[in-house]
Amino acid sequence: MTTAPETFDVEAWIKDANLPRESATVYKRADVVSKLTALKHRIEIARADDSGERTSGGKSELQSLEDEYVNLLKVFSGSAITVHVRALSRQELRDLHEAHTKAMEGKGLKPAEENELFGYDLLAAAIVAVEPVGKPEQPASLTTAQVRALEEAIGATQLTAILAARQTAQNALPTVDADFLHRPSGTSDGSRG
Predict the structure, then answer these.
(1) How far apart are CA 55 and CA 60, in angstroms?
(2) pLDDT(43) > 70
(3) Distance from the CA of 12 to the CA of which of 19, 30, 38, 96 falls in 20 to 30 A?
(4) Residue 182 vs residues 41, 177, 179: alpha-carbon distances, Å
(5) Interatomic CA distance for residues 73 and 39, integer angstroms
């Protein structure tokens, strides 16, 4: 006795499909990195000169420096936020381009300036969620002005990480790398020996 094969519901599959997403992590306290770098240098010197002598507070200078370093690391890592971006559909891209072109009419901007502004528009449309460190992902919708303010706050280099995530979501085939789960730490090829 044979059974009829199940039919595949293409319409249901399409309705359930989602555009690719990527993410980038940026930090609002990147200013702390210079202090961490300076402290690292001081710790290296203290380690070379450590005589184990205690300060009046009962800790060695080395221990105090290491404690300060750990506290600054917590400040830096606690300032992280992961920004989630998604690819935009062809129609969304067309609509954004049309709206941008209309908005630029008569402004007399150079093509490079118009392209830069369009980049902010694209990124604002692509950002769909943020995930502050230690908190769940939450939906987000940024305006073009907020994206520009974000760049001013975190710097162009960190914004570039978000832009790269958007480019990947928009232009790369979705891939996943689960191989790293099987690699023991300290090796690059997965071998244990």
Answers:
(1) 6
(2) yes
(3) 96
(4) 35, 11, 6
(5) 11
Residues constituting the chain: 193
Whether the CB-CB separation of 75 and 128 falls below 8 Å is answered with no
Residue type at 120?
Y
Global confidence as pTM: 0.79
- Measured CA distances, 30 to 37, 72, 109 (Å): 12, 11, 33
Does residue 19 contact residue 86 with C-beta atoms inside 8 Å? yes
87-102 exposure pattern, b = at least 16 Cβ within 10 A, e = fewer: bbeeeeeeebeeebee
Question: Which value, to the nearest 10 degrees, does the dihedral of the CA atoms of residues 159, 165, 166, 167 take?
Answer: 110
Strand-pair partners of 26: 81
> Which amino acid, 6?
E
Strand partners, 27: 80
Say which residues have a Cβ less than 8 Å from residue 164's Cβ, sequence separation at least 6. 24
Instruction: Compute CA distances 80 → 36, 66, 74, 145, 168, whole Å.
Output: 16, 22, 10, 21, 21
- Kindly give the residue spans of alpha helices, DSSP state H, lying in 50-86: 61-78
For the chain, strand residue ranges (E) read 21-27, 80-86, 127-132, 138-139
Instruction: Determine the distance from the C-alpha atom of residue 154 to the mean position of all C-alpha atoms in its chain, rounded to a whole number.
Output: 12
d(CA 170, CA 38): 39
User: What's the whole-number mean pLDDT along residues 158-171?
Assistant: 96
State how far Cα 149 lies from the chain centre.
16
